[in-house]
Amino acid sequence: MDLTFQSYTLSNGIKLIVKENHYTQSVVIRGRLSGGANLDPPEKTGLAAFTTSLMGRGTARHTFAEINEIVESVGAMLRFNCGRHLTTVSSKSLSEDFDLLVGLMLDGLTGPTFPPEEIERVRGQLITGLRELQESTRGLAQLYFRESLYGLDHPYGRPFSGTLESVEGITQADLFDFYQNIHPHEGIFVVVGDVVSDIVYQTLEATLGQWQPDYSPPDPTVPSPPALTKRVRHVKSVPHKSQSDLMLGNIGPKRTDDDFYAAYVGDTILGQLGLGGRIGQIVRDQNGLAYYARTSLMGGMGPEPWSIYAGVNPNNVDRAIDLILAEVRRFRTEPVSDQELADAKAYLTGSLPLQLETNEGVANTLLQIHIYQLGDDFIARYPALINAITPAEIQAAAHKYLSDDIYALSIAGPMTES
Amino acid sequence: MPDQNAVIDYKLENGLRVLLKPVHTAPVVSNWIWYRVGARNEQAGKTGISHWVEHMMFKGTPTFPKGRIMLEVNRNGGVLNGFTSQDYTAYFETLPADRLDLGLRIESDRMANALIDPDEVTSERTVIISEREGHENNPAWALHEEVKATAFHVHPYGTMVIGWKDDLHQITRDDLYHHYKMYYGPHNAVLVIIGDIEVDRVRERIDELFGPIPAGPTPPPVSIREPAQQSERRVVIRRPGKTAYFQAVYHVCDGTHSDAFTLLMLEAILSGAGFGGPATHRSARLYRALVETDIAVDASAGYHPSIDPGTISFDGTIRHGHTLVEFEAALETEIERLKVEPVSAAELAKVLKQTRAQLAYTMERVSNQARWLGWLEMLGDWRQFDALENKLAAVTAEDIQQVARRYLHTSNRTVGWFEPTGS
């Protein structure tokens, strides 16, 4: 598979990766910079998300309406977002409009003005979104799962999009303060599409490369989350609903941990292959309890969750939990079969061509390679990495990270809180 | 952009329509089978049966027992899915190019040999009811169901594809099997394959695998017609909740009518050109009139061409502290504006450029190319694809004005409010 790309370093230290793809008429830009929700002060949770959603809503050159008009008049997309660790910027346009998008992106990164009327507009939208969340059994199950797993004292346990109280209290000064966490130091930009590498470099060096903030980059260190010492169960009552959602699990590996690949292949068997792996098979296929029942292994920059989730009839919650726990127990105590392992490996290695079909897919893969420093030859090495995983390694990872005894469990639905 | 000349279009003797197109940009192929059956083919008391049959297509044949299809596709590095709409049911496998044969074997096998095993029907009944209960949890979905049911008195478009819950309790294994045998014949299907293929070899395999399947019965035509609406209809759901939702639908023409292109342009003027790419709605009229004014947190128009006369819809999520009355009034102002004031040349040019960009993005995936061709064929003729940009470009400001006057009037609409109580 051809995943050769050009690497450059801009004057301000941003690493630039360019992959030409002349089969398409478009170009995708993906940038990752410091500044994520982990840096939110505990009483101002949601600040990172609030800040990044304002970055395209008024700059030194343009109002929000002007930016929308310019971007949409060429059928393009430009978004600023944040994750728990990073601020992200992404765009897609026809390649003929690349320079236009670079200009607007740079405006947003270097000169957001945080206009008061836009702050209030976004605040109202965030509050409405948080009120809608109070009605979403799936959203609440996720929210309280994280809180139960990490605790509110750790940034991973706090709600990314804030709370009604925290969002009410965020001021323009807070936004300007948080903005000073967004810094080009160790930034990574990936450009994929119908472009010429050296010209992309020249364009970005002359613009993005000249961004030299007068503030220092933030300390990205996140304290290790405390391990769970006892089972934590959270039930959130949402009356008048037809379905309950549940989420159960533990803290998983980081993307860069040695046993990440064992967990990843194992997760494919436990909750991905086919209609949700073993979990989907037992909860949906054999017992008809749920439309969705599967797992999620996040494996990011920090120890993110490894979880199992399902949406079930309120009368079937306990039965579904028992079935899930029995599968977790089996996954920890018995090695996976050779056939399951062969299937998982075939899927994970065989699906690479699909992942790399589009500019977005290539850009995401190149970002992963550079964020986690997986090496320029990662795609070539990937099949061997996956194929080397043994049943014993999977069992060891299952044993280390998952538990049918000590785990966090949250349930949201029409039931009594406990 | 797919060009018509590159598509190989033919029919097998049993009536199976085949559309093939080699695209060698990536070592990937997408294999789609489309059946001309969906909610519009359903009878009262059996709603949801098409969607349920779709589920049963994953529950086993003698060759591919339950669970096998997904596993085999994954094992070969592919992805798959199936979905049911008002007008059609489709299945696809997107695979590494050298694994296409698996997709052909799966689709030819389940076209003829699905077991629809009684025990699996029992187990899937609760899965589908669970799927429905998941939807019911969403207030906007609940509102949509009520609005559809109110807008259509007799046509099956008045029912959600998943069907009414009581019907889901009552549909039998024999009902499902009969529905399958009636609608899943090759003469009622279109096979679309786009990707890194060698056409001659693929044609041979299609002949071998699909050729022997007998044509089967001719499905009954859908002759029911929705009577013209005489006056405005309104429906209000009052239920515990924290957010208000709005939806209005207006009856429009069928998807092959020339007004359909004008409706697509009208939709784009109001909420941006969609066509499957990233959203471009923030400079569009409804966003400016309803979101920028703080009445709503989102507002959109939605038009999806349909086989029988369908609807255009207007949706909104009301911002906390604002009201459904404000939303409805501001929406009405925008709709009236379309009737009295011609859309500017600049706005028309903008949505055409959006359309060109969106189509270019969408076509980067072979699976999307196959989806477009199949969908247009279900609607009438896949060759419409090449004409799409030109037909949209030919729509004038006056056309939009006329279409707005023709369809977007009070007596032709159904308005739905979701009013949360207890917040």
Summarize the structure.
Chain A has helices at residues 47-54, 64-73, 98-110, 116-133, 137-150, 164-169, 172-179, 197-206, 260-271, 273-286, 317-333, 338-350, 352-355, 359-371, 378-387, 391-401, and strands spanning 6-9, 15-20, 26-34, 77-82, 86-94, 188-193, 232-237, 244-251, 290-297, 305-312, 408-413. Chain A is an alpha+beta fold and 418 residues long. In chain A, the strands form two sheets. Chain A has a six-stranded mixed sheet with strand order 1-2-6-3-5-4, with helices on both faces. In chain A, strands 7-11-8-10-9 form a five-stranded mixed sheet, sandwiched between helices.
Number of helices of chain A: 16
Q: How would you characterize the largest beta sheet of chain A?
A: 6 strands, mixed
Number of strands of chain A: 11
Low-confidence blocks of residues of chain A: none
CATH H level of the largest domain in chain A: which superfamily?
Metalloenzyme, LuxS/M16 peptidase-like
N→C terminal distance of chain B: 50 Å
**What is the total number of structural domains of chain B?**
2
What would you give as the CATH superfamily of the largest domain in chain B? Metalloenzyme, LuxS/M16 peptidase-like
CA radius of gyration of chain B is 22 Å
Rough outline of chain B:
globular
Look at the structure and give the mean pLDDT of chain A: 95
Number of helices of chain B: 15
CATH architecture of the largest domain in chain B: 2-Layer Sandwich
Task: Report the principal-axis shape of chain A.
Answer: globular
Radius of gyration of chain A over all CA atoms, rounded: 23 Å
Q: What is the succession of H and E elements of chain A?
A: EEEHHEEHHHHHEHEEHHEEHHHHHHE
Written overview of the protein:
The complex is a heterodimer of chains A (418) and B (423). Chain A has 2 domains: 6-210, 2-Layer Sandwich (Cytochrome Bc1 Complex, Chain A, domain 1); 232-413, Metalloenzyme, LuxS/M16 peptidase-like (Cytochrome Bc1 Complex, Chain A, domain 1, 2-Layer Sandwich), CATH 3.30.830. Chain A is 43% helix and 18% strand. Chain A has 16 helices and 11 strands. In chain A, the strands form 2 sheets. A 6-stranded mixed sheet of chain A has the order 1-2-6-3-5-4, with helices on both faces. In chain A, strands 7-11-8-10-9 form a 5-stranded mixed sheet, with helices on both faces. In chain A, helix 9 (260-271) packs across helix 10 (273-286). By secondary structure, chain B is α+β, with helices and mostly antiparallel strands. Chain B folds into 2 domains: 4-210, Metalloenzyme, LuxS/M16 peptidase-like (Cytochrome Bc1 Complex, Chain A, domain 1), CATH 3.30.830; 233-421, Metalloenzyme, LuxS/M16 peptidase-like (Cytochrome Bc1 Complex, Chain A, domain 1). Chain B is 43% helix and 19% strand. Chain B is built from 15 helices and 11 strands. In chain B, strand 9 and strand 10 (311-318) form a beta hairpin. At the A-B interface, helix 2, strand 5, helix 4, helix 10 and strand 9 of A face helix 2, strand 5, helix 4 and helix 12 of B.
